[in-house]
Design brief:
Length: 389
């Protein structure tokens, strides 16, 4: 089995990498894994992947963790914003000798801001970068292509959302959602033109740390609800002059949350296991929500998050107040509130899971509900790392 993967250094991508290695450890059929990504100023791509395996992969893989760099992994320097992906002729020829049976494109620019420079980069990486990936897929004659998108390409809407839903005229929470829809449309066009054989669209919801594979709670990115809570932790630290979880503090911000709103949260390891399981079955083209059947209710969760760091606020309101204080203007217009308020004060879609459940084996583990004790495990891990502050 030959698999190509982009985005292996990201949260979901790294879990996909580990799950692929885990699936093929000791298997009769060998795995060749092309990992496409970037070297950085201090480390080559191979060094980055080796470090990732040593620091996190050894927990996920456990006793099956290979000594040294796995022979199954072959790294290719790849830049989504460069012509031809910046792939050297030598690397391209090597890939042609061992072309992928499956190509998983998980790399993306994830930025919820709306500045012109950010928007331009989202289009360059997420849209034109996907076009460049498709050109490589065609060159290599890959039969199966999987695109990791986002469930929020549906835009701001409520009610049941099918996993293949494409909005015609829809408002989006941010340019990132729009760019991921545009990348899907690029792939769909290639599919219509017959340039792709089988295409699988995976639309994950909000991704959190692991809840199945060790270490429990592990995440490499403290964003979304982690970042929301980190904002209040930072304000508390400014009051006290230190990061302190035990001493109570009051922050004068009225937070808007819509009645019956919530977040659909899926653990990174469950999302990776689901995606790999579906892809390795080589099904016909389809779209899937990588989503939880459970909603993490904001009326329960947001107060519990603030309780975890011992922060109190004046209260929750149903919509943004008109008479904003200076601190509230900071929250709603210049920081985390601007980014995440649309996810906690807007309608919650009901992401249909019918294609997802139809494709998974009957004995596949159930998705953990991210609430209560499970949420506490996620927060405890984040606390060990001060929520990335």
């Amino acid at each position: 089995m030959v698999v190509a993967l982009t985005g292996a250094t990201g949260l979901l991508g790294s879990n996909i990498l580990f799950e692929l290695l885990k699936q093929y450890q000791g298997a009769a059929e060998p795995l060749v894994l092309w990992v496409l990504g970037r070297s950085n100023a201090t480390n080559t791509l191979e060094e980055r992947i080796h470090q990732l395996l040593n620091e996190d992969g050894r927990y996920y893989l456990g006793a099956s963790y290979p000594a040294g760099f796995p022979e199954s992994i072959r790294t290719v320097d790849c830049h989504l914003d460069q012509p031809g992906l910046g792939i050297s002729e030598d690397s391209l020829q090597q890939m042609k000798q061992h072309p992928p049976d499956l190509f998983i494109h998980a790399a993306a620019a994830v930025d919820f801001r709306d500045q012109p420079g950010v928007i331009a980069r989202l289009q360059e990486i997420n849209v034109r970068g996907t076009q460049r990936i498709l050109a490589l897929v065609e060159t290599l004659g890959v039969p199966d292509f999987a695109l990791v998108s986002t469930a929020y390409v549906c835009g701001i809407r409520s009610g049941i959302v099918q996993p293949d839903y494409i909005p015609a005229e829809q408002a989006f929470r941010n340019p990132y959602e729009r760019s991921k829809l545009d990348s899907e449309l690029v792939v769909k066009q290639a599919q219509v033109e017959g340039r792709l054989k089988r295409v699988h669209f995976f639309r994950p919801t909000t991704i959190c740390g692991r809840l199945t594979e060790p270490p429990i709670g592990y995440t490499s990115k403290f964003d979304v609800f982690y970042a929301w809570l980190a904002f209040f932790l930072r304000l508390k630290a400014r009051q006290l002059g230190r990061i302190d979880y035990e001493t109570p503090a009051s922050i004068d911000i009225r937070v808007a949350r819509m009645p019956e709103s919530g977040l659909n949260i899926i653990p990174a390891d469950f999302a990776a296991k689901s995606l790999v399981s579906i892809c390795l079955q080589q099904p016909e083209s389809n779209a899937y929500h990588l989503a939880s059947p459970y909603l993490t209710d904001n009326y329960e969760n947001l107060p519990a998050l603030l309780d975890f760091i011992n922060v109190s606020i004046p209260g929750f309101v149903e919509e943004m107040p008109v008479d904003l204080t200076p601190l509230e203007r900071l929250y709603y217009y210049k920081s985390v509130g601007k980014i995440y308020d649309p996810y906690i004060s807007k309608p919650v879609p009901d992401f249909s899971l019918h294609t997802f459940h139809a494709q998974l084996p009957s004995d596949f583990p159930e998705c953990p509900a991210v609430k209560g004790a499970a949420m506490l495990k996620l927060l405890e891990f984040a606390k060990q790392h001060n929520f990335g502050l």
